[in-house]
Amino acid sequence: MNLETTQGRAARRVATLGDLVLDVVDRCGRFFLLAGHTFRAAGQPRFPALETLRQVEAIGSRSMTIVLLTALFTGMVLALQTGFALARFGAKPYVGAVVGLSLARELAPVLTALMVAGRVGAGITAEIGSMAVTEQVDAIRSMGADPVQKLVLPRMIAATISLPLLTILAAVLGIIGGMLISASQFGITPNFYLQTIYANVTVNDFLSGIAKTFVFGWIIAMVGCYFGLQTTGGTVGVGRSTTQAVVFASISVLISDFFLTKLLLIL
Fold it and tell me: What is the mean pLDDT of residues 188-205?
């Protein structure tokens, strides 16, 4: 009897695991089908240029405040922690080099992407999800238009364009924040602080961080649109999809950052 019970539990666990794997494969398939449809929609007539510009303003301009505040205080905290750590080894003057490299290569791109994923990813999912549950997406189809071209494509292009620009501003403001703390806390002059950055942070360091943001922007927009279009169940479903979109977008950004960093270091 105990053997039969154990075998039954094992069978149920295997079945549950199998259902989970099938669900993940199904979701991935639907996501990449949507991605392929979006790229094809870019070459179709009636390109939504005005909607794309509107989304650039909504995604880029309206995200500046939260991104720049995050970058400023990240640079300040990084300079503060780095300065005390380097002081143990007599290397306190090189705070600028550490702050510059950290922001250019990793912190500015990743933190910008996470902030945008939380704000923009949730907004995209909620907007498109509300349209899906109120059958507005079906209405677009019934009028002979392509909802992917009208809804997904402008947001994907806008996020891919906006994220690199936001990252550049975040890196600059983060370096300025580090400079303020270095001058006030450790007595490092702004001139010397900037000189250490110029001497240690190369153009390739800066470009490697910017290059990753194009992928991050694409991931955030596509994940938000995917969960929005898959929304069912009324307002409760919209809330559920919004939460899932933010979680999946943030995790995807962190995972892709690792692989992109490995690739860029090889190149």
Answer: 91
